[in-house]
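Input.
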Amino acid sequence: MNNIEIGLSYECRAIGIEKEVVGVVEQLYNNTVLINVVSCDPTDRASVIELQNRLLVKYEDVLACLETECTA
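Output.
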C-alpha cells in the first residue's frame, strides 16, 4: 500500500499478533505504521489489551483500506 493515511482504518497483520486486525493509523514511521486496534480476533484479545490497543505494522502487512476515501 502506497497511500496510507493517518486517521483511516486498515486491515493489517500486526507485529506479534497471529490473526489480522482492524486499526486506525495514528503515526507513520520509516518502515512501520502505528495503529490503534478497533477489532481483533478473540484469540489475540489478551495480547492486544496488554499492548494497550496500539500495535506496529510493517507497510507491506497493511492489507486493505476500510474507508471509502482510500484510493490505494
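The first strand starts at residue 9 and ends at 12.
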